[in-house]
Amino acid sequence: MSQGRRSRSVGVGRAHAKAVLLGEHAVVYGAEALAVPLPQLTVTASARWSSRRTEGPGDVSFTVTGPLSRPVAAQASDGLRRLVRQFSPTPRTEDGAHLDVTLDCAIPHGRGLGSSAACARALVLALADLQGRQVTEDETFDLVQTAENVAHGRSSGVDARAVGAWAPLLFREGEVRELSVGCRGVFVVADSGVVGRTKAAVEQLREGFQRHPGAKEEFLRRAALLTEEARHALAEGRAEQLGTRLTDYHEVLRAAGLSTEGIDGLVGAALTAGSLGAKITGGGLGGCVIALTTPEQADEVEQRLRAAGAVRTWAVPLRGSFRE
């Protein structure tokens, strides 16, 4: 990190949600994953020095607004406190000044949309802004991973990269590259209203691999094939094939026991409404569904998903860059 400008009285940083198209769970084992940004769902972090004195140096408090609950905010703050300690200190932290952080988060927690990573990224950028520093993407990634590894255990890193991206990404082992987009379509994301259980899903999958010889290899083989075919379909404008690969990947996750009856109902509703494909997105055992549809069919798909139990939906046009 290098000094970029004078420190400010308030630092502000922003990030957004993401959704994984294909590659959940397989990415933890070194396989590729495809992800898209969801710029409609944002988090803004504000950081400022407080005049109140504290007993120890570098003390920090968090205020969270939006759909995050207080228990969730408390849990997330453990990783965020670690992030603050990792961030290069300034004389203000050394002399015992108190840091007040406000996180205005519109990303529902526990839905596989990257809320914790987005909060961490927004905080990194707010601290950099407050302290008049410049941070590179790699430095930001490392700091976000510091918080993510506290919150979730070993994190693949896909969330840390995708919550700052403005184009669909191919992710593998910490490295990313932007994807070519030749398709015309709309992604509809539907919130089931049920918090996903990523850690439980990861453990369930691991136990299944241990019980059934060859299951891990077959899971990774199938996941890699579908992800590769989806990447080519996305680039070459074959929207129907991309949609089919989404649905096929959902079947892979469902067969591993990572879906739920409610999620399967939403997937079915999306397909019945004319979606080109649909699947669970994120860690599993709850969370969200993502469906690919034509622009003409998007409203109908959203209506059917809400009728099937989705508590909210978002429509995200598919394009090469998601910057407005």
From TrEMBL:
Cellular localisation: Cytoplasm
Enzyme class: transferase
Main location: cytoplasm
Record-annotated GHMP kinase C-terminal domain positions: 231-309
Pathway(s) the chain acts in: Isoprenoid biosynthesis; isopentenyl diphosphate biosynthesis via mevalonate pathway; isopentenyl diphosphate from (R)-mevalonate: step 1/3
EC number: 2.7.1.36
Keywords in alphabetical order: ATP-binding, Cytoplasm, Kinase, Lipid biosynthesis, Lipid metabolism, Magnesium, Nucleotide-binding, Transferase
A biological-process GO annotation: isopentenyl diphosphate biosynthetic process, mevalonate pathway
Residue ranges annotated for the GHMP kinase N-terminal domain, each copy included: 97-160
Record GO terms (molecular function): ATP binding; mevalonate kinase activity
Domain of life: Bacteria
Gene Ontology terms: cellular component: cytosol
Listed NCBIfam families: mevalon_kin
Similarity-based family: Belongs to the GHMP kinase family. Mevalonate kinase subfamily.
Protein name according to UniProt: mevalonate kinase
Organism: Streptomyces reniochalinae
Primary gene name: mvk
